[in-house]
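Suppose you are handed a protein chain with no further information: no name, no annotation, nothing but its sequence. What can you learn? This example shows the usual starting point.
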Amino acid sequence: MHTRHAARWQFAAIVSLISLFLLAWPAATDLLMWKRVEIGDGQAWRWLSGHFVHLSARHCLSNVLGLLVICECIWDELGLAEVCVLSVWTAAGTSLLLWWFAPAIQWYAGLSGLLHGLWAGCAMAWWCRTGDKMAGGALLLLAIKLVLPSYAFSEVPVVTVAHGFGALSGLAWAVLRARARRHGIFG
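A reasonable first move is to predict its three-dimensional structure. Written in structure tokens, the prediction is:
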């Protein structure tokens, strides 16, 4: 268990340092942000890189704080490799859902879609394995958070649909994981 606990903080440190480094690099936001036109022109890295750049220090720090809360309170069931896969799945899922179902969204930046996916995926994996009421409570809090306005603490525009798409991606991953485990695939 100690290794799993240490892994969550290593993961949080790496993601946080990447986000903070990109925040300190002035050209990063324009070069890496999820932008519909540039993705359409073939800049495929933006599918994932847009999740790690932020529009301001406050935006970045609020996302890092959210990551720390998820690592401490919700990440219970999964190992480091699974959380890395969940993160890539959620970032890709959020990006694809924005592309397909939110054509009015022209840009996106920040960890929030990925964070909602981690929240959903970690809580659902925990609930699927244990049925723990705390895991159910985490899922209920996520549902409440998704219906409440998200602009209260932000000085930058919030692409709230990305939160829902991230959560949906995380839930889908956790359900697929549970089905695979039930059928003896991947442990």
